[in-house]
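Sequence design from tokenized structure. All designs in this work follow the same two-part layout: the structure record, then the generated sequence. An example of the structure record is given first.
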């Protein structure tokens, strides 16, 4: 998990990265990570893109997950590119809501897009 100060995710606001170990997968995704100041507890809502982070020293925060390109593995980067290309073919452009789906969970989002409406 990359941690930024503020809401813009600018490189200047980057504070560091914490490795999160998953401790529960159902019904929500739950995990823990160790920082120099203590333990972070992370909970993803219904295994979706929304999550909370709690820390006894700094309090709690909530946010939305998205793929950070510099840290994603090759498979994830390829899935995001395929998802974006599929959205362009299907709709002729990429609206922000579609882009967010591709960069948060590209495989699941493509499956959703392929379902007949």
């Amino acid at each position: 998990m990359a941690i930024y100060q503020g809401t813009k995710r600018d490189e200047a606001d980057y504070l560091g990265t914490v490795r999160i170990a998953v401790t529960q997968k159902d019904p929500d995704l739950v995990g823990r990570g160790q920082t120099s100041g203590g333990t972070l507890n992370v909970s993803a809502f219904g295994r979706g893109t929304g999550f909370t982070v709690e820390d006894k020293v700094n309090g709690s925060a909530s946010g939305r997950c998205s793929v950070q390109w510099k840290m994603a593995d090759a498979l994830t980067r390829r899935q995001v590119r395929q998802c974006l290309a599929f959205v362009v073919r299907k709709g002729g452009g990429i609206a922000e809501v579609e882009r967010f789906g591709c960069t948060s969970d590209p495989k699941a989002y493509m499956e959703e897009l392929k379902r007949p409406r």
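DSSP finds three helices and seven strands in the chain. We note this feature because it recurs in several other targets discussed in the main text.
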